[in-house]
Amino acid sequence: AQKITQTQPGMFVQEKEAVTLDCTYDTSDPSYGLFWYKQPSSGEMIFLIYQGSYDQQNATEGRYSLNFQKARKSANLVISASQLGDSAMYFCALREGPQGGSEKLVFGKGTKLTVNP
Amino acid sequence: DTGVSQDPRHKITKRGQNVTFRCDPISEHNRLYWYRQTLGQGPEFLTYFQNEAQLEKSRLLSDRFSAERPKGSFSTLEIQRTEQGDSAMYLCASSSPLGQGELSGNTIYFGEGSWLTVV
To answer: pLDDT tens for residues A35-49?
Structure first.
């Protein structure tokens, strides 16, 4: 089974509107972390936001917030007040805890976000 | 610039040649990772170092691939006898050590990647 599923290959949003990018994950490790990265056409992976499995509150970073629903195993990224510069690929990634024995991130296939003026 | 830096950013090579990529992590980070990303896919894990020790290797890392981090600072990824299927972007990332009792929270920072084209 895939550990990270991003079901939206592409999304469109109007400038200044909010958009939600979906991410579901699969892990049996009780301790894990979920990351969102932005990848513009230049290729660099830019860290946006992190949510730990034991965090009580949803993570927020400026215009980014994470809608974490642990029971549903979903960690959707919400971008508020979209800007033209938000157009990029967005990747959700899972890092299982130290008990899982691995330090690696497992990425989804990404969602291409296009912000229209 | 104090981020993760990679060199070269772009490399075109003929099939069968060897190539080497270098990664300089953020200075206080003891963990270093290599990932590979092909078009239309998310990055895939290749290998991971903690200081100079290579602690985990993916099955994707065939015998033609070798990574080193001799002094626990910069790292190199060498691909021998390149094949067209090796064409991809090779991403390096680093993170700081997990504190005692800390879970998965340390942010992993990526470099801008090294694009490889094998012709």
So the answer is: 999 999 988 899 999
- Read off the tokens for B5: 């830096």
With CB atoms and an 8 Å threshold, state whether A45 touches B110. yes
- CA B34 to chain A, closest CA, distance in angstroms equals 10
Q: Report CB contact under 8 Å: B104, A102.
A: no
Supply φ then ψ for residue B8, to 5 degrees.
-75, 165
Average pLDDT in the A72-99 region?
92
The encoded tokens of residue A41 equal 């056409």
**DSSP state letter for B61:** S
A11 to chain B, any CB pair closer than 8 A? The answer is: no
Chain segment B105-116, per-residue pLDDT in tens = 567 889 999 999
Which residues, in sequence order, are CB contacts of B105 under 8 Å at separation 6+? A33, A50, A52, B98
| CA B19/CA B68 separation, integer angstroms | 14
Q: H or E element: which one contains B22?
A: strand B19-24
